[in-house]
Every structure is written in C-alpha cells, then in structure tokens.
Amino acid sequence: MKELIKKLSESFGPAGCENNVRSLISDEVKKLNFEHYVDTLGSLIVKVGSKGKQRIIIAAHMDEIGLMVTFIDENGFLRFTNIGGVLTSTLPGTKVLFQNGTVGVIGQEKIKEPKELDFSKLYIDIGASNRDEALEKVKIGHTAVFMPAFHQEGNRITSKSLDDRIGCFVLLEVLKRLPSSLPNRLYFVFTVQEEVGLRGAKTASYRLKPDYGLAVDVTRVGDTPEPDFKMVVSLGKGPAVKIKDSSVICHSRVVNLMIETAEKNQIPYQLEVLEQGGTDAGSIHLSREGVPSGVLSVPCRYIHTPAEMVDLEDVENSISLLVELCKTSW
Ligand code: CO
Ligand code: ZN
After folding, report:
1. Distance of alpha carbon 9 from the chain centroid
2. Which of 34, 265, 295, 305 could form a disulfide with 242 if both were Cys (CB 3.0 to 4.6 A apart)?
3. 279 C-alpha to center of ligand 1: Å?
4. CA of 101 to the centre of ligand 1 (A)
C-alpha cells in the first residue's frame, strides 16, 4: 500500500503535464485487465461493468500545483508564475524539481513586511552562473513541482501532492477490490488540470454522459493550531462526506446515499462544509443538463504545501466506503 502511495505522490505531474502520473496509473490498471483509454485532453478513463442502468463517474485528479518559468535574468535566476493555488508563504527556502531532473531552490528578495511577499519577490536558483548556463537546463514555460520527500510517521504520511494522488490511490485500490458483478456502469476517471479550474473533469463528463458523479479528493481539517479558523473535520476520524464547497452544493441524494452506506457498513465518516476550495464535482455537476454529484474527501493537513499529511486509517476507510458505494444501486 505504502509503496504505491509513495510512487504516485513523488511522480512529476503539474497541471498540463500529467503524463508521468498517467503512465504509472495505466500500468496499474493494465495489471487488472479493465478496459481503459485516454481522452482528448489527457484524462485516463477506466470502464467497469457493462450491465447496470446508471452511469456513474468516479473522479480523482492526477495533476498537482506547480511553478512555471516566465523569465530568466542575465545572472541565471528564474522568475516564475503559479500553476494553481500555490501559497507564496510556503516557498522561500523550498526546493523544487523540474521534469528533466534539474533541482532549484527558491530565494526571496528583501521585504519589509510579510504581506509584501508575492511572486514578484521570489526566484528560483538552479545553480547557473548566467542566462546561457540556465538555458541549458530550463526553458521559458517549463514547470517545476515541490521536491519529493515522502515520509511515514506511525499511521500518518507526509508528501507533496497527496492532493490528489491519494485520491488516485483510493480509486486504484477500489478497482482491485471490486466484485465481478456490479449494479452500475462505472467510469473511473483520472482527470487532468483540476488545479487550474476543474478542466479535465469538464470534458470527460461531457463525453461520458453520466447519471451521477462522485469526486474523490482531499479536504482541509480544523484540528491544527489555528484559532481563527473553525472546521469540524479532523485527521483520523474517517472519510468526509462533502455537503458544500465553493464549486458545488452536493446533491442530497448522493450525500444521503453516502451517509446510509457508511452507517450500514459501520465505516466512520465526518460531514464536511469547506468554505473555500473546489473539486472535480464542481465541473461534473454542471455537465450537460446537470448531474447529481457528491464528493468523498480524504482529510488532509497542510494542503498545497510541500508536506501534505493524511492518516492511513482514513485512506483505508475511504477505500471501504467507495467499494460499498460501487456495490450499491444508485
Ligand atoms: Co488542490
Ligand atoms: Zn485536489
């Protein structure tokens, strides 16, 4: 279990550049002999079951947040912009990795007040002494991600991009555990470009014409020292059933089905209202004439930092809940 989470979360996949992650996932899917294909924008679609009435999309995104090079100065320092919701406060002193293996460290110009810290005050140092030397390794438009540093401490793991490789892992584990006969037609979709606006899920759900949608993604927690921020979700208390975030108000039929299924199978769960943030369900539910959708969230600390943290028991309970949902008639 741990080995695959490590491989998934350490692989390179900023939005728009998901090919490494996709080939890792399709290698796993091939071992299981499910029909699968890649859609026009690059999402990987796995077809499960052909007899059921309802078509259900179950989505997790492959991409992660990252940085893109915008300018290289004469001394070889790189300026960059963000791919998705990168927090400037996490960047100074952080190491980043480019797809070709080049490693950089993020430096910061002098500022008087913390609130002055924006992307214009930050640069990447790849150890080049001038522009030509830098250009041998990195070009304008190249992207970088946080340096991989997977670690397990007891039941908890920290790594970059658990948002949403942990969701990809949950989907892969569910695929391994499904019985051969199912009441629904399931489409497991590993989407692209979620972090820049839920884009891959939009085109995949147009193509697949689902009756229902479910996204599997991480959510914030309120159990860390953070006096101004109130949220009931905690690490280690089970998967969260999303009620609302800024991209979707989850459909009551899906929410109730998730709660009933968890209770019937004695799987712990929590209710989630996320004040800021979105998931692929935000695109899926607005596809075509509208698709009743919900979200199964894995509680996660320090989202969008180099060290996101999840609890392995939550991961296991998320897998159990999703397996049971797949076995239920919707
Ligand atoms: Co995210
Ligand atoms: Zn996510």
Report:
1. 10
2. 295
3. 8
4. 23
